Amino acid sequence: METKDVYLCIDLKSFYASVECVERNLDPFQVNLVVADPTRGSGAITLAATPHIKNQGVKSRGRIYEIPEDIEYVIAPPRMHLYMEYSARVYEVLLKYIAPADIHVYSIDEAFLYIRPYLKLYQMNARKLAQKIMEDIYQSVKITATAGVGTNLFLAKVALDIMAKHVPDNIGYLNESMFRQKLWRHQPITDFWMIGKGIEKRLKKYGIQDLYAIAMCPPSLLYQEFGVNAEILIDHAWGKEPVRIQDIKAYRPKGNSISNSQILFEDYTYEDAFLILKEMVDLNVLTLTEKHLVTNHISLYIGYSKEVRKPSRGSCTITNRTNSFKILMEEFGLLYKRIADVHYPIRQIGISFGQIKPECYEEYDLFTDFKEVKKERDLQRTLVQIRRKYGKNAVLKGMNFLEKSTARYRNETIGGHKA
User: Fold this and answer.
1) 51 CB neighbour count, 10 Å cutoff
2) Using CA atoms, how far apart are residues 240 and 179, in angstroms rounded to an integer?
3) Which of 97, 170, 266, 372 qualifies as a cystine partner to 146, CB 3.0-4.6 A?
4) Please, what is the angle between helix 325-339 and helix 270-290, to 10°?
5) For residue 94, what are the contacts with CB-CB under 8 A and spacing of at least 6?
6) How are strands ordered across the β-sheet holding 7-12?
């Protein structure tokens, strides 16, 4: 394997739950602990669960009420800042062995490493280097890691996700021939990276339930069903992945956007959900202002409670390229009235500003009051400076104190969870 490209995928086992155990001097392999916000009630999502409680059938992404009553366990409220600090400490360990150019941080608890040049440097094979890094992570941070080794990014990820959990040293190992020999017939197909329930359902229409069937399927049929994304499915079915870490590092998107979404704690009426939309637009506008950016394209997503009907989606290009809250909120208001269904309770809202450009590209129609735009921008910049110095809740608007508002709570969270 070491004569080809060699990648390592490192994952921190039950990361949030493991951090909470370290903080409490507990062993995650011996204690029942879940990370969840009990203030959200029994329907709160368990963001993580220790391996010990998982072995008793408790899911890491289930609900509190799904935990059997006969299981005693500890609930640890999420602390996102703490998890970010631990993640940074793990990254420091990785930097002791691998250069930043050869590391791709995939998520807060997972990273890809290109390790081929380092095998000769350290006089080790891939498994030995993986073991050394994992041992250092445990000694430095007290978090148990698992790893996948592969000849490309896809095989390293699959070796981690499927193979590592079945071997004593927690290190999975795959090349293309081993992949086809051991995993071509593996089910469920959703165990594989980048294949979710939606893709699984579409494949089942053609009787396809494993990667072998994809490999044997006429490519024309797959392209007809999935378009250009069929190329990824076909490559992965054969254990191939042309993208390398250096390609990821060099990638520059053709267009940029700023997005924001939230799942509401309860069902919202059409009117109350509009308040949340206003708060979200307000937040994104301040982000535009802070980064000296403008937009002329908006998108809106409305999800309804318990899937009583399909979500509503809409987008439009507007006549002004701006970061004015007044102008953008007016456009979102029109879009909301056009797509949102007044008859159904709303549970999810997502917005996006597209076609982002630097502020020097701003454009306005003949009906715009430029003095008002400048006055509003000066105010927004002042708000940005105050929030940057004193926190997001230092200056609030009247709407943020209404009963159904979520802005004050979300300003104290990271990714929707307590910081």
Assistant:
1) 18
2) 10
3) 170
4) 150
5) 10, 103, 111, 113, 133
6) 103-107, 110-114, 7-12, 145-150, 171-174
Is 417's pLDDT higher than 70?
Answer: no
DSSP 316: E
DSSP state of 311: P
Alpha-carbon gap, residue 98 to 35, rounded angstroms: 31
Q: Cα separation of 87 and 373, whole Å? A: 42
pLDDT value at position 181?
A: 96
CA distance 297 to 413: 28
Task: Please tell us whether the domain made up of 258-418 is placed in CATH 3.40.630.30.
Answer: no
Amino acid letter at 271? E
| Average pLDDT taken over every residue of the chain | 93
Fold of the domain built from segment(s) 184-249: DNA polymerase; domain 1 (1.10.150)
Q: Give pTM, 2 decimals.
A: 0.81
- What's phi and psi for 106, nearest 5 deg? -85, -35
Return the H-helix or E-strand segment holding 333: helix 325-339
Nearest to 160 by CA among 15, 13, 11: 11
ω into residue 218 within 30 of 0, thus cis?
A: no
Q: What is the pLDDT of residue 278?
A: 96
pLDDT in tens, 4-52: 899 999 999 999 999 999 999 999 999 999 999 888 788 888 999 999 9
167: three-class secondary structure by DSSP? coil
- Domain 1-175, second-level architecture: 2-Layer Sandwich (3.30)
Mean pLDDT of 326-351: 96
d(CA 142, CA 19) in angstroms, rounded, equals 8
